[in-house]
Amino acid sequence: MVSENLLSSSKRSPTTPNFCNSFTTRIFSDVAGDVTIVVDGESFLLHKFPLVSRSGKIRKMVADAKDSNISKLELCNLPGGPHTFELAMKFCYGMNFEITTANVADLRCAAEYLEMTEDYREENLIARTETYLNEFVVQSLERSVEVLATCEQLPPIAEEVGIPNRCIEAIAINACKEQLVSGLSHLDCNSESTELKSSCLEWWVEDLSVLRIDYYQRVICAMGSVGVRLDSIVASLMHYAQISLKGVGKSQIWNPARMKSSPNMEENDQSIIVETLVGLMPTDKCSSIPLNFLFGMLRMAIMLDAAIACRLELERRIAFRLEMVSLDDLLIPSVRSGDSLFDVDTVHRILLNFLQRVEEEENEECGYESEGIGSPGHGSLLKVGRLIDSYLAETAPDPFLSLQKFTAIVEILPDYARVIDDGLYRAIDIYLKAHPLLSEHECKKLCKLIDCQKLSQEACNHAAQNDRLPVQMTVQVLYSEQLRLKNALSGSSGDGFLSQRISSGIPSAAMSPRDNYASLRRENRELKLEISRMRVRLSELEKEQMYMKQGMIDKSGNGKTFFTSLSKGIGRIGIFSGPGGGRHQKSGRKPRGPEGKTGRSRRYSMS
User: Fold this and answer.
1) Which of 382, 384, 372 is nearest to 348 (CA)?
2) pLDDT band for position 7 (50/70/90)?
3) DSSP letter for each residue of 36-84
């Protein structure tokens, strides 16, 4: 029976020829060394008899030598090098030393190389190392990780003897056991189970971070096959990325000099790590990978120029939960020289994936109750519409953002993704302010993306006094305001529109059932969208009534007319004013130039 202190004795420094003389003459004091073995340039003066009695390779080398008095042999590419060879020779001479997790893999491979099998002596070095591996290493997750880490520097012979495979399997099985222990503890003690579970999870997650990426990949795949929890695997992936990718990007964002040079070896290795970790992410839809981790990996993939498939996979995963994304997550810096400050192309692809998902979900739905604006899919689309409008407003001040990319983001969203176009109008106004060199044709093309009938009262008031807008846009705003006022006075707001929608939604006998169903679904969605707009207009009318009453009360005291009070009241509704809120800029005042306020506060002002 082998114990962990088997062959233990005081440790010595790496072997030199003089040291070999000292310990061989202790056993054979009257016999001088008769063979010199060279391992990686280091010479060992030894005796043939104890070596050939345990090593089949040395026995064959001595037997195959033409000169029976040969005194020098050379061993090439011995696993573990001179230090491991010294331990193997100590074993041949019967000297004690300690087998540990740090040297057992080297000793096992060196014993295989030297053919130290049971055919030459019982309990030879192969058998001793195998006993240690089976009885001590594979029984412990921690020891298995330590031995697996030492295999990284060994030649392919380590795979031939199966050390990595056994360690990987042991790690997965022991992690699964830890998971079961955590579950039983959760049943026994509700208050302490969370702390116990997190502590058990933490230590083996940290241990795995020392592995090379190829071994780590095999370990995670083995864990998935034996049933380790997906949240534990995700936690391990996040910790490994945090450790192995630390410091990436500090000198790579907005650095044109980097883009001109080819990536170095370290960046290539980091790129492989990113691609491997993305490939290891669970594919189960029930697994919730934190969005900040997905965006962090996407930024890493962009900066390290990872494979296209890796970036597309991250974009697809983000698009699946785009309605839960924050604005700061979408502000991905661009690393290409001469491009815009933010990576608009990546956001455009994410949005395309999201719209494709919404379309697929709508095609899978059955029945009329789940269709239209009231459905979860359309609720997500409205959230994404507001998110994209905020993103456009945030990126619009970028002087390097081309009109083509800006309009591509605007046009990709369907009309029913916005109940009102106030956010879109705000973003376009900021873009016009930051790009004063746009031609009149380009301004008209950009402003055509705004539906004047979907602007609120406040936005219409602002647009009517906005000198950055084309004349045609101003006329359309005034005309829509006139129609709105006429409908409000006649009390028929939206009735004609609704009747027109209802009459157009009558099924046609010439249409196929599938087309008829799609038409009804579209009409249902448009009707609910119009109802949402009418609610917004009703809220505006209630505000106007409130200011109207306030004006009538103040009329006798300050001598102001009713219409003056009403105009002032409406002007106080300042969703487009600056952060000050109470300080409303007059319409006759010229817009501020570049010497005005800058930063985030400037982006919220369109005056």
Assistant:
1) 384
2) very low
3) EEEETTEEEEE-HHHHHTT-HHHHHHHHH-SSTT--EEEE-S-TTHHHH
